[in-house]
Amino acid sequence: MSSKKIGFWSVWALGVGGIVGGLFPALGVVIQIADVGAPLAFAIAGTIALITTYAYAKLSVAHPCRGGTVTFLNQAFGSGLFSGTLNLLLWFSYVVMLSFYLQAFGSYGVSLFTSTQPIWKHLLISLAILGTTGLNLLTANHIGKSQIWIVSFKLGILLLFITMGSSHIDISRLEPVSISSLQSIFAGAMVIFLSYEGFELIANAAEDLVNPKHTLPRVYYSVIGFVILLYVLIALVTLGAEPIEQILAVKDYALAEVAKPIMGQFGSVLITIAALFSTISASNATLYGSARFSTVIAKSRGFNFGSKMNGIEQSSIGLFITSGITLIIANFCDISRISTMGSAGFLLIFTAVNLANARMHRYTKSKQWISLLGTGICLVALGMLIWFALQTDPQTVWVLVLMVGVAIGIEVIYYLSNNRRLHL
Questions:
Q1: Which of 119, 66, 8, 85 is nearest to 349 (CA)?
Q2: How many CB atoms lie within 10 A of CB 213?
């Protein structure tokens, strides 16, 4: 890695880039579940992320390193079975999240073609993951610069959509949310929680950041606050500009279709291009983080990352493995199921991170009650998500159980194969 450092705007762009890419696949999913309550669902999910951000900000300042979540869990709970399983689950969740972004990239990309044959979507997904893998072999400084340009471009288009779309809102389509619909709104918030996850990537960039103690908290809170407002406004414009039936008919690329009556055909193409850039930059940011924390996981298991394996830097091997598995999931899994799996995985991880900061509150100089509140809220949210999945798609719950089971199994095999005493 380069010794060059990245500044506030580079890491801010990394965080926003890692989050906003989730808007495009999540918008249609949340409208399908929460109906006109989609803006409120985005606000609820964002509030959970904001509370968890407190723990991340405190832990990142105390441990400004590339390991991010991996380091936080190891410091709080030791390097036993519990933290090892969570670290592997985090990596699985990254793979699911990447698949979430790439599905949207393929859907929006195909909408530009006259032919919508599935082969084109699969081709676009495959090219996207290969391209971002190549970009992540560059230095942190290049990553930061690329994120600033990509994020500036897509945010400019999204803000233009909000500005122009505000005059096309039909208030009659934005009916007041009823008490009876709160259940579907909370369910929608939990299913698309994955669309906020990207803020966690900021922790992975802490070691490359100039003056992390001063900069990190400002980055965390400004990123989440900005994205909550952005998501809510876009959901309001989308629902107010078009009948919900028409939105759901094209839910995989809803924003591009809604842009047509607001910005014309050219505007729709601009939104599509913004979606492509957003999902690419989100994949870029996610791979950037995963490449770094996979190094920490491997080092904690005794692998030497200072050498090469068959001419390939070992720090890049995790990146290649992540990309390969993502290719399979993104090409063959349903986007709603991907969203549910990823959201469940990250809610479980964020429960542990809040608990980690509560346990280390004296060391991180934190208010313990805030992180305990975050722990409880994430657990309740996870329970609601699992309950909703059991009602609508029980197979998704079994996939989550499989993810956790595989993570535990790998850890147990590691301990037994190295003749180490198994402990939590």
A1: 85
A2: 12
Going from the C-alpha of 242 to that of each of 172, 188, 325, the distances in angstroms are: 11, 20, 37
3-class secondary-structure state, position 22? coil
Q: Please give the DSSP secondary-structure letter assigned to residue 380.
A: H
DSSP assignment, residue 393?
Answer: -
- Exposure on the CB side of residue 287, measured as CA atoms within 13 A: 34
Residue 385: strand, helix, or coil:
helix
Note the pTM of the prediction, 2 decimals. 0.86
Mean pLDDT of 126-154: 72
pLDDT recorded at residue 116: 64
**Phi-psi map region of 325: left, alpha, beta (phi>0 left; psi -120 to 50 alpha):** alpha
Distance, C-alpha 133 to centroid of its chain: 17
Give the count of beta carbons closer than 10 Å to the beta carbon of residue 424.
10
Q: Is residue 144 a contact partner of residue 14, using CB atoms and an 8 Å limit?
A: yes
What the block records as the tokens of 318 is: 């995790």
Distance (Å, rounded) from C-alpha 293 to C-alpha 298?
9
